[in-house]
User: Fold this.
Amino acid sequence: MDKQVGSAAEAVADVVSGSTLAVGGFGLCGIPQALIDALLDLGVTDLETVSNNCGVDQWGLGSLLAAKRIRRTTGSYVGENKEFERQFLGGELEVELTPQGTLAERLRAGGAGIPAFYTPAGVGTWVADGGLPRRYDGSGGVALASEAKETREFDGQTYVLEHAITTDFALVHARYGDRHGNLVYEKSAANFNPLCAAAGRITIAEVEEIVDPGELDPMTVHTPGIYVQRVVHVPGVEKRIEKRTVARADA
Assistant:
């Protein structure tokens, strides 16, 4: 039951090139930066990531992207990252854009063992009808476009079929955790972390503070340890702010 490992490098040691990864975080909030850095040091390539976004230039998943370690990514937001734009339009990166709520439900369904579900989000758009660019040819043309998805009518309304997501590994960040893998997230830093934790076949959690089993109130646990295979302690991990808004001194 002791799932704690000694370092982030040890935690990701069996990730291989071509692995699929569900990565928690929203912008730069709640991202597993220590695990991302360990993957960068590991040197694996051709990764396929599933995350709300792909970090910013040189931070979060953006550090893996800048090193050209990511072959394909699924997400709902791609702003704040000039290297992402360059690689996508240059034909170096395959991108599956998914409505944010749909992405969350695809991960949740994967963790719950539900293979697919119907949703109204995207009906009547390229999301459902196909034709959404996934990879460009580097000359402005589309080398690969999304295919049309199955639709079905329920009670007079059209819905589109979306498939669940499961990945080889999940990387998440939590505020508290114990050696059994039970996790507690800090307020809005939870974001996509519980969903990713459930969707990964091997889930690795970086935790700011490790406590003894039994210290966490079961009513406060967000991710039960059954979903988590490895825990690594990352005290003092750097947390960056994506956008800082301040008032003028004379305001």
Observations:
- The two ends are 55 Å apart (CA to CA).
